[in-house]
Amino acid sequence: MKKILFYVILTILNKFFKGSRFFSLKNFFLRVIGIEVGEGTKIVGPININYVSKIKIGNECWIGKNFTIDGNGNVAIGDRCDLAPNITINTGGHQIGDNHRRAGIGLKCNTIIESGTWIGTNVTIVNGANIGESVVVAAGSVVINNIKKNTLVAGVPAKVKRELGLG
Fold it and tell me: Is the pTM of this model over 0.85?
């Protein structure tokens, strides 16, 4: 029954409350279905997530439209993070199997995006990659490895383009 309620509420939010309004109401209903949403966070929607994922979003974040968490892993987003539209975090995968079936044993990956990070539009994060504090991920990047704090990364796969100052 809990799972049905989760998807019913998520469907209602995505259909009737998408866009840049009703933030407090959306956050209330997301909390009802078990998603931790911090104070002052604004989630535009629609969002696409699985029931099995544990999701924690910090305070004063901005989550753009078409935010997707695909797979069965967990995602934690720190405070004051800005995620542009069309971000996908893939929390599932497979080991490479033998020649009879290359998608081998399933993997569950967890992703952490630390506070102060800005992720540009159309970014994909896979393999349980963690993104450090105050990182900028350029639009269109694919993050497959951990990113250390105070860096700007870009590309496919995302690579460090420069260190960022503290000021």
Answer: yes
